[in-house]
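Progress narrative, Year 2. Work on Crinkler effector protein N-terminal domain-containing protein from Rhizophagus irregularis advanced from sequence curation to structure prediction during this period.
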Amino acid sequence: MTVANLKDQISRTKEVIEDKITKMNLWKVELTTYEADNLSAEDIESHERSEKMVTTSNLDKYFNNNEDKNPKKGYLHVFIVPTATDLGRKRRNTEVETTSRKRRSWAINSTIANELRDSVYFVDTTETSGPLRDMIQKGEFVALYGTRASGKSTRVDQAIFKLKSEGYVCIYVTLEGVNISTTDIFWSSLGTKLAINAPNYFKYNEVKSSDDFMFKFRKSNWESDVVFFIDEYDVLLEANDDIKSSFLGTIRNIKNSKRDYAILSFVAIGPLSILFLKSDKINVPPFNVIKPFRNPNFTLAQVESLYKEYEDDNKLTIVH
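Result:
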């Protein structure tokens, strides 16, 4: 089945016929539930995990689950993006609906991605992230720590947005869900995560060992400096010493031979405990734990500013 066949089937649905959509583009995009409920068509098109589906391509190019050549039943979600002509025709009809969707909401204990910044209330950390970006641009291997739900991941997301605009390649991966049974399984599982989170740079099964990881980042492979962010770094505290030694040794090798590698900076993210991660074989961690970056707590002024925005948006007064 091709993308063209899918578009033809969609065009026959009641919803599409009623909305008089005659032309459409289909995109494959990985979204969180919150993103799916709140992003506009424009946001979906520009999303970092979106890919426009080529009409002449087979669906298995986009949805091969390694078990069969078709999307799993119940797992295919289609977002229809009308072409510019149809958008112009439908703008008047959807104006009220679009406005209501842009009402801002509160998001607790979750990363505020840049594409969601206009739809939620949050503390903008761009200005206060200057010291973090300075450490990165100096080529430091940074330990970024803070309490749970303190905005670490949101700060990192905003830093990535800024760094990308300056020409850096930013790769973000989390150790949450990475299998830490054995050293071989750890590297293979991490490689799978990289293929999922950074498909533009990693292929499935491309990284299955520490040697694969180092070889991937040899300088000749990259045209720009790479900044590597690794979240939930404290997962390694539960790993056996062989895994810790393998990972810490790999990062230290890259740090000690930076002229050979494209990685400019490595940022480990997690709670305070990440400052004490070491192994029996490697007592000196590759990250700067002497001068780490502490994720600052919100100030009273920042919190008051958020509530003031909420009051203004909803035309009400909050009694303290």
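The two ends are 60 Å apart (CA to CA). The chain has two domains: 3-101, 124-294.
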